[in-house]
Amino acid sequence: MGLLSLGSPLSWEETKKWADHVRKHGIQQLINIYRRLKDRHGDVLKWGDEVEYMLVVLDENNRTARLSLKGNQVLEQLEKRERESPNDYPASWRPEYASYHIEGSPAKPYGGLMGHFNMVESNMRLRREELMSLLDKELGETAISFTSFPRLGSPGFTDPQVECTPTVNTASRSLFFPDAAINHHPRFRTLTRNIRERRGEKVCINIPVFQDKNTPKPFRETFPNGDIEATKAAKDGHIYMDGMGFGMGCCCLQATFQACNLDEARYLYDQLTPLCPIFLALSAAAPVYRGYLADVDCRWNIIAGAVDCRTREERGLEPLKNDKFVIPKSRYGPIDCYLTPEAEKYNDIELVLDQDICQQLEDAGIDRLLARHFAHLFIRDPISLFSEKIHLNDDEESDHFESIQSTNWQSMRFKPPPPNSPIGWRVEFRPMDVQLTDFENAAYVVFIVLLTRVILSYNLNFLIPISKVDENMQEAQKRDAVRQGLFWFRKEGLPPSKCQHHQCNWSCQQEEYTKMSINEIINGKAGGFQGLVSLMNSYLETVEIDVDTRCSVQQYLRLIQKRASGELMTTARWIRAFVQNHPKYKYDSVVSGEIAYDLTKVSDEITKGVRSCPELFGTLNSRTKVSLPPVVHKNLRKENPDHDILT
């Protein structure tokens, strides 16, 4: 989760005093990096993934599933093993926001060989086995890569159970998410407190509830002790959440790639941007929040609300008086501008930026587009600062730059090289919900990394206006967006013929893109867009690749293809079907503790490969050993006139 400095955290009032200092030196640190490394060339492809896990305790006797708060202890043991075997240990482990959270990556990056695609799933499996080896199976402890735990924020969702009141939760003031569930690393509680204090009130997240036939209408929540702030903030027909943990307590799947130089990194950043909403929808895995079925399938807007530190003035609710900018988005959201000259004409939304910083960057030799990008990121304040990290050597360190760069949690991240490091210019792909199994997570990561090779080899162009990407990001989160949604996408990805118009005006641009289904984008349509997989298969015919790797890659491509066509369910659709067909479900949108237990138990068995799930994989995941009981198959497949999601 970005920069993880250690030290003595400052309060928001103290941090605020140093905000201009951090911005000033952060920009100087960026300028120094740029001047040293702007002409760096010849870096080879290196790439890796990040998978996040939740630690869960399954109590079979009481039929409960809770989140284990022993993540810090487990992480200490994992990091100890990593230190003791630096050359042959399979994983690198890092803390995440919550005490039940752990992030794992390959210990060393993968490279440019096609055979490396065949290493991803096995490495993910080794990571999971390493993590599982430190859990007590007799106590029901396990690790599941849920995007969102179904009862997160419900009474007693942690193990051990802890008191949860706004008085006890001094960092978040949450009614539902205890501070005890926040990771012990000082960064995370500091972020939580400073975001709330900078905002001037608790964060406020409202997502639409799924309106089932017995769901109260209007759906209206009541809160402990008639909490006035919650009662005022909560919307009818919505699930209300009030803490950073509801967003940053989710899990995701990310991939980072090193480019050969600065220009290639910018090109990949731009070309992958229109694909972010497509893969947000394809990876959708989060339809349940605080024990209620939601009418969305993804985590994205929940996290955006969970870290929204904008003041009332910055949100446009009051006239600007103490703040400098009205800022349209949370600091977690889709990107706001492309970086390459070819893409500039598609930057069609007004970019809020610090003009002084932009001029300083241009004066230092950074071109206008890149200067505007960073000047936009630096309209934000630092929200986590340590007393030991205030006065730094700008030639040798980049902590002030990273303190703002790494807390702009956008769908793509453009990453300059760290100072004094062999690491080059990188791009991070950030939109995806994490999947239950290593097979699925490997499939999504391999698909994206392989696609970067196809983009570079064929000089593909997927650019559409940024405003349309924003629109797509909202479409991607809707219930069953893969089957029901339509997304703006470019009609032709291969280099276009010369424009026949006398000038390439806005009407010409409009002809370049249209609305498509996810199925058309991935699998193509006769007489229309050829489909991403068709382009990828054409590329695979031109490269040397061993038979075993080709078979693995084809399995991964087929999984994505079948998810795109609707033949296989997304994780969100499967979870929704499981809940709605559970014998204890009352068609009232409530995911009870017993339903959550059964869902968690079955998910754990699917994760471990002891239970097959043809609805998610078909016959593609060869590691599974036994089938689901016939009654479960029947329930998941049956036609239900009240629920369109199973058709």
Automatic annotation (TrEMBL):
Q: Does the keyword Nucleotide-binding apply?
A: yes
| Assembly and oligomerization | Heterodimer of a catalytic heavy chain and a regulatory light chain.
What chemistry does it catalyse, as a reaction equation?
Answer: L-cysteine + L-glutamate + ATP = gamma-L-glutamyl-L-cysteine + ADP + phosphate + H(+)
In the record, which residues are listed under signal peptide? Answer: none
* Pfam families xrefs: GCS
Q: Under which name does UniProt file this protein?
A: Glutamate--cysteine ligase
Kindly list the GO molecular function terms attached to this UniProt entry: ATP binding; glutamate-cysteine ligase activity
Annotated pathway: Sulfur metabolism; glutathione biosynthesis; glutathione from L-cysteine and L-glutamate: step 1/2
Q: Which UniProt keywords apply?
A: ATP-binding, Glutathione biosynthesis, Ligase, Nucleotide-binding
Task: Report any one BP term from Gene Ontology.
Answer: glutathione biosynthetic process
Could you confirm whether the keyword S-adenosyl-L-methionine appears in this record? Answer: no
Q: Which organism is it from?
A: Branchiostoma floridae
Family assignment from sequence similarity:
Belongs to the glutamate--cysteine ligase type 3 family.
Which E.C. number(s) belong to this protein?
6.3.2.2
